[in-house]
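Supplementary notes for students who missed Thursday's class. We covered one full example, reproduced here. Read the sequence, then the structure, then the short commentary at the end.
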Amino acid sequence: MRQSKIVLRLIGLLSIALAAFGLIYIGISLLLSAFPNRLTNNPPYFLPTFYVMAAAVVLIEVAIAWSGWSFVKGNVARVFPFIVACACTEALPIIVRRLADHPSIGHSIAAATGISTGGIYLQWAIRFPIWAPLIVLLIWWYGIGRTATT
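Structure (token representation):
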């Protein structure tokens, strides 16, 4: 049981670190978007699509950090919000790719994708949204089984 608490805390720390990186990245992107004269030759709906995608990424990052803080404290009560946030992280590129094919706003979505979702690329690179929820779910399941039998 001690090893599972250590692994849970490490996943929690990694969750917080990755979410902090993503929030800092999106914060810098939002700050730079305040100077639209620096953004030239943008599609017509660039800023609205950027803000919508940035808001989605912020919600995902906050949910991951919130769950990660719970894991650092050794509590797996927020396992399901963590799994949903990681699933949204994996689903986001698929959804964005489908929306980028839209005839009227597709160019705006494609243009805003990099700067609005760049904060979660590090999570995708280490495949965090796939392996971390599985490990946390196993720890949660093992903990439920242990408390039911003791």
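Commentary. The two ends are 13 Å apart (CA to CA). The chain has one domain: 2-149. If anything here is unclear, bring it to office hours.
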